[in-house]
Amino acid sequence: MPTAVEVQVNPGESIQQAIDGGALSIRLSEGVYPGGVALPDSARLIGAGAGKTVIVPGARAESAVPPLHDAPDAVDHGVVVHAASDVVVEGLTLRGFSGAGVYAHTVSGLRLVDVESDANRVWGLYFRESTGLTARGCRAAGSQYGGIALAFCAAADAEIADCETTGNAFGVFVDNSSRARIQRVRAHGNAAGILLLHQTYPGEPEGGVTDCLVADCDLTGNTLAAGGDDPDAPGAAGPPMSGVGLAMIGVQRVAVIGNRITGNHPGGPSVMPAALVVASSADWGGSASADNTIEWNTVTGNSPADALIDPEGQRVVNNVIGEGT
């Protein structure tokens, strides 16, 4: 029977073997551990800290999780959580996987604390069709699509707080997901610091982005070029995008409060000609952006423009947008 008694795993020992042996609470020593991990209900995987405990590719963890979106077949992942609940991952780095650093699908209750995704090929920390999600004090760098991403989480009840993203196509990506709180995030060196998007996709669930908060974030220096036809480029097969601090496309009831969006400049072509963009996605099967509040933000020193906001249905007050406004 599974046991909640804590098991210590050291370098040279198998994390997955300890899990398969019934352990639910696993503490990892400092060091490098080859091989992905699949976690069951109520599992606790606790490392010595990001950058100290490092999981790298090795033996692939067996899981019935569906194929990863936008990834080739047979990619491997650092940590997989599928059809599980009440899982905690804390204090470790996931590095160099061909799929995602963390891939969570149909999960209820997943908490990531001090988890680093470093150079995982497709996604960093990826949550899909899940609820009750937390990423706190995490870092995500160098993934082709989202560093931290919510995909088709209709009631995400998600907290993304005190995190850093860099070198991804989208630092934080809220894709057809609702009820997310994004606070005190530092996003720099991405193509888009934060992207909230409602768009329909053939064969995918119904979407929408509603009832979210973006507050007290620093979205600066996002200059990476993404999109286009190169399959190895960031954001491959998507529209060209660069120089975006925050984009809200087809969203409703989103509050954007007290953020600093500065120094974002395109490093290549971009379909979004401003650092702060609020626009409709109705032409792509989404919806108009409406009933959103944008207040107490500083949006300055960006090019080619600081802000492009669809004025219909938005409350835009008490901001500093552009020089002297």
TrEMBL record:
Top-level taxon of origin: Bacteria
Domain Right handed beta helix: 78-219
Pfam families hit by this protein: Beta_helix
Protein name: Right handed beta helix domain-containing protein
The organism of origin for this protein: Actinokineospora fastidiosa
